[in-house]
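Posting for a labmate who doesn't have an account.
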Amino acid sequence: AGVPVADGIYSFTPWDEAVQRCGLSRCGAALLASCKLALWHLVQPCIFFAVAAASWPRLGGWQRSAAAIVGVREAAYVALALAAAVVHPACLLASPWVRKEGLTARQHAADAVLYILAPDDFVAGACMHGMGRGDAERTKRAWEYLGAGYVYPSLIVAALALAAMASALATHAPAALVIAYALVGLPLLYALIGTLLSLQ
């Protein structure tokens, strides 16, 4: 059960409409949304913080700087996920397996890849449309803040995370830290796949 990813990121979907489309009770939908918020959006940043904290004493100067910068980005992701839960809670009912009517298979695949590989960008889009509430001008203003303030810098930090991952591998840093950096770098993989899908 769920609503298409496109309804969570490209438009504003009212909560009651999303609940009805999912075929769930209000309590069931609230439970599903809470589980997705905790287990899909908040666990990964919390794991990064725990791994970075546990690894901190063994890290060199470059690794500590990278971990701190990535930590700021992960904190911003947590803030965006919590904001999305408030301004556009229907996004927490999104499912990459539900296809929006009228989307091509390629468009649906791009949305599913975004949801899976770049959940932080998904919640940024959900916040943008939640703040806009269907009003094009308000949504545009929200994008001006979120695009410049989070999405673009987030891609730069994802590249830094991949560089830190390579450095961590070379210096035999804890495996958990290498994996945590790799997870933070996934949005760059999404950007590459999305670009390839759009070129075909």
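Reply:
Got it, the structure tokens are right above this. The first helix runs from residue 5 to 9.
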